[in-house]
Amino acid sequence: MELHGYFRSSASYRVRIGLNLKGLEYDYYAVNLLKSEQKGDTYRKLNPQGLVPALVDGDTVLTQSLAILEWLDDRHPEPALLPRDSLQRARIRALSYTIACDIQPVQNLRILKYLQSEFAVDDEQKTGWVRQWIHEGFSALEQQLDPAPFAAGEEPGLFECCLIPQIYNAERFGMDIADYPAIHRIARACAEIPAFIEARPENQPDSTL
Amino acid sequence: MELHGYFRSSASYRVRIGLNLKGLEYDYYAVNLLKSEQKGDTYRKLNPQGLVPALVDGDTVLTQSLAILEWLDDRHPEPALLPRDSLQRARIRALSYTIACDIQPVQNLRILKYLQSEFAVDDEQKTGWVRQWIHEGFSALEQQLDPAPFAAGEEPGLFECCLIPQIYNAERFGMDIADYPAIHRIARACAEIPAFIEARPENQPDSTL
């Protein structure tokens, strides 16, 4: 499989964790967002939306990180990213979407660029914006996470694929994750797991370009 | 079942369509976003995130519209909201997330309020912002939709649950859906189906409050 992504992209990071948790091998192709390579003709042949990541498996091209993770779970069921019980699955999806639909989309690169270029938002205002949405989402998650090591119990899965990249963003904007004890606990547990360590932005080949 | 939502909320509208497509009965409880009822203690007991909708089924409370729709599809498989084939399912989820993760989150009420109060964005700028993200997403969708009547083929499903509320928002901001022929075709097909007609904002009891 080929993963086309960018080291700092949350959505790419989610898929790297998922592939690693499943123990699946893949070749990594860097798409430099700072050079707008995702908007170029070559990449748009993979994904007309011009957003990373894209996962190529033979003739198949998959886009949208959460759709890719669900597909990986369909095709390679063990270890599972989602619980078997449908109610538990709904709970884990809801927690994941709190990040993927309510936090991350409003603070990604294209949005921040627009705020700066069109609304003349300065760095301090930008940081305030990012922190506001992360804080709102993380505060809600704090009330919904059980004391088990991970959101679904004994093993990390879909939620942790979303959470760890979001924490990376939060820390880039100077937030202290210790303010969110349940999230902090999950972050510490994931920090010990090779699948998460190998997926980190700083461990990708394009981090040093 | 009880659906707690708001007539104009995209996420509530998605779930209304899904429940109607499944032929499931529900009681509708209006949560007035303009009065911030979603932030009140009563509603937050249902959903600590303070966002609509919430679906109550006996002792179970479900949140996040896409998690609710997936759960409905698990529990009430016919008619299906997602295709059986895992690759087709990934495709429909990716199209749905283009709306639910990349378009809708950046133009919902809490975001627009923040832009106005913190960045002094005026009405014209706000309209430009909303149209920009809808246009970017809809343009990508145009390239990915097949000529079948609906995204997955002969029947509407998860994607149409997301698309029709997004079109409602686009039209509120003065966009002409005829500019997007594939989307327009799906919109016209859905406009004939009772499940979609009954779910419309103007057909909800709180639309006249």
Automatic annotation (TrEMBL), chains A, B:
The keyword Repeat does not apply. Belongs to the GST superfamily. Zeta family. Pfam families: GST_N_2 (PF13409). One of its GO terms (molecular function) is maleylpyruvate isomerase activity. InterPro entries: Glutathione-S-Trfase_C-like, Glutathione-S-Trfase_C_sf, Glutathione_S-Trfase, Glutathione_S-Trfase_N, GST_Zeta, GST_Zeta_C, GST_Zeta_N, Thioredoxin-like_sf. SUPFAM superfamilies: GST C-terminal domain-like, Thioredoxin-like. PROSITE patterns: GST_CTER, GST_NTER. Residues 1-80 form the GST N-terminal domain. This is Maleylacetoacetate isomerase/maleylpyruvate isomerase. It is an enzyme of class 5 (isomerase). Its EC number is 5.2.1.2, 5.2.1.4. GO terms for biological process: glutathione metabolic process; L-phenylalanine catabolic process. CDD domains: GST_C_Zeta, GST_N_Zeta. Keywords: Isomerase, Pyruvate. The keyword Metal-binding does not apply. GO terms for cellular component: cytoplasm. Residues 85-209 form the GST C-terminal domain.
